[in-house]
Fold this protein.
Amino acid sequence: MLVTETADKIKRMEIRGAGRIARAAAQALRDYAESLSTHDTGTFRREMQTAADVLVATRPTAVSLPNAVHIVMAGLEQAGSAESARKDVIRRAEAFIDSSRHAVEQIARIGARHITDGDVILTHCNSEAALACIIEAHRSGKEIEVFATEVRPRNQGLVTIRTLNKAGIKTSFIVDSAVRSFINVIDLVLVGADAVTVNGAVVNKIGTSQVAHSASEARVNVLVAAETYKFAPRTIMGELIEIEERPPQEVLPEEIARTLPHVTVRNPAFDVTPAEYIDIIVTEAGAIPPQMAYVIIKEYLGWGIGEFHKAFEINTRHEE
Ligand code: RI2
């Protein structure tokens, strides 16, 4: 698939979910590297960088996207020729896609152990990592039940209930605003993440923080399933995660909005759940308390402190 085609699909959310967009971007860079016929190293690097920038610009919140691009492009500067640069991009992209899939499988195994026989689980939005834990628990013979929210305005809850139904898991489908009404029958909240910051806050689909707040009030544990590449290295340097605000038409049809000139529709796609509402984050490297996010960024993501400074300098330059 062409880079622009993948970028459009990510923008329109035809390809969505933090893990999936990361893998799609890696695949697009891989295919682009393969298709570039230039033998000039400089041209190859520039073309690849332009493609990478197009992909990263599609959606601003899910850190998995720039992290995947960073991982795929990491050897470009050192490569001595266009040919070795091309090979390096292809190798890194394939390795990332592979390890991303393995990460979800490993998270499923670890996450399933946190699910007890008889649990009623509430999930919000559509997270392949969170669903993998639920499905693995079901497969291992635990009798579980799920409450899934609708997830306005893009209705990702529909994707979730289809998957759960296919797996044969007993599921209740509720509107987003019904979470508090059911929280007392819930044993565990299980969600995914688009980004995890250095202080252990989790950025996920809008409404997640309300769900977590209700859970905390009702003393229900909140478990987050997140691959290590969803942790945000630049938050160490104080960079904030940008919350994507999507088109108002997703919430209110244009023809109605036109008749309401004093009304502004706000449509943030994500919110921030503070670490204090989260019990555990399940990564492929193990289940950690959210306060250990720094360790994941430093030890598992493999960004050296020099790279943090480099990233910081680049950003500061952009702001000038
Ligand atoms: P996985 C999704 O974002 C949801 O917020 C979901 O919880 C998160 O990505 C993680 O999903 P969107 O693309 O990577 O629907 O676990 O806006 O699939």
